[in-house]
Amino acid sequence: MFTINLKSIFSIVISKATLFLCEKLLKGGTNFPGKVALKLDNKILKHVTKGYKVILVTGTNGKTTTTSMIYNVLKKSGKKVITNASGANMLTGIVACFIKNYRFFNKEKERFAVIEVDEANVKFITPVISPEIITVTNLFKDQLDRFGEVYTTLEKILEGINHSPSTNLLLNGDEPLLGNLKVDNKCTYFGFTHDTGIKNVDINAEAKFCKNCQKEYSYNFITYNHLGDFYCTNCSYKRSSLDYAVDNILNKDYKGTSFTINGVEMFINQSGIYNIYNALCAYSVCAQLNIPSEDIVTALQTSKSSFGRQEVININGKEVKIFLVKNPAGYNEAINVLGLDNRMKSCAFLLNDNYADGRDVSWIWDVKFESLSNNDIKHISVGGIRAYDMATRLKISGLDIDSNSICENYDMLLKNIEESQSDIFYIFATYTAMTSLRKYFQSKNFIDKLWE
């Protein structure tokens, strides 16, 4: 047991009691117990993280799925490991996670904590603890009212990294913004050497201008959006050498994806290029922690989708798949996954503008909804706080939207699902729309747990 003062003990006890009440009475409460703990002891995180080797996962897209993958690999390899599985990635949620798992008489010698952290909250964690690894998945435009442009997001992350110069950085080498960082940390890179055959960057792609001289990048190939094997023809800046690389994509369809990393073949039951990146990042982290590659492959093969991330739910015999969508880059990749499925399908598009979604919903006009016309979509439903904005966007893209498409509540959406003649019902939802929909499904006994 580590020495701990009475103030911290009181903070932990009260926070644990608050957590218990929130779980029993509110069926949630992933942040509030952390707020209570910090109010009673603003240094509580320092005490409850002692003894842990901490891996922080940050970046715009893929944090929750990558965190889950790393956690599953470490757990299945026999390590003692915790994670903030609910996706509560602000300081208060992270504090609550550690307090929930805190034991006053813990004798475990080696413990790991795989923690998803919001990009703007890294700076609150690293002054208190020195993580073993910080990994950054990518940088896309997201919640512009909160983060601004991608360059601002990078600065927020770097502010946190600069507090912990001894931490190893594991970075997406295909992300131009993450190359040649002016930091003292050791940097390791992952990315693609598999040539996708795509050369031309999309007009709406982000960070496509050289970070040194502002000339537009050229690419040997692009994976998606602005990620890929980039180089600048005006200066010497180019992609860093990769330590871990996807060197071949063997097969991809709606059931999953087969590919190789550094020549090691693996399969994940998630679809899409972006999920290959998530698996690549998880593989790289675990390799850095000296987990044998065969153990990583086995664990990733059996990893289930996180809540709302290509999660499949059975609703009275109907297959329903939920996609969390929150920015153009991720939305376009989700639509690409839809294109891998040749079955007859129906779709629902749920758009909210709560704080956690971002108040500005103008980003939906950068999503390539026009490509949906190439799919066999039998019926479209639209819902959420900004349902009419979404309906307008889909109507402009050429899809068949009328007054019958609008779902004023989840009962109407459920009716559409139950009456659907399609083989599968896809739901694309922003964050608070996804969480509220899952709470509704739980109330109808279609799912057991909110955060799994």
From TrEMBL:
Keyword Ligase: yes
PROSITE patterns reported in the protein's UniProt record: FOLYLPOLYGLU_SYNT_1 (PS01011)
GO molecular function terms listed in the Swiss-Prot or TrEMBL record: ATP binding; carbon-nitrogen ligase activity on lipid II; tetrahydrofolylpolyglutamate synthase activity; zinc ion binding
Active site residues of this protein: 360
HAMAP family registered for this protein in UniProt: Lipid_II_synth_MurT (MF_02214)
Function: The lipid II isoglutaminyl synthase complex catalyzes the formation of alpha-D-isoglutamine in the cell wall lipid II stem peptide. The MurT subunit catalyzes the ATP-dependent amidation of D-glutamate residue of lipid II, converting it to an isoglutamine residue.
Assembly and interaction partners: Forms a heterodimer with GatD.
Official protein name in the record: Lipid II isoglutaminyl synthase (glutamine-hydrolyzing) subunit MurT
Organism listed in the record: Oceanirhabdus seepicola
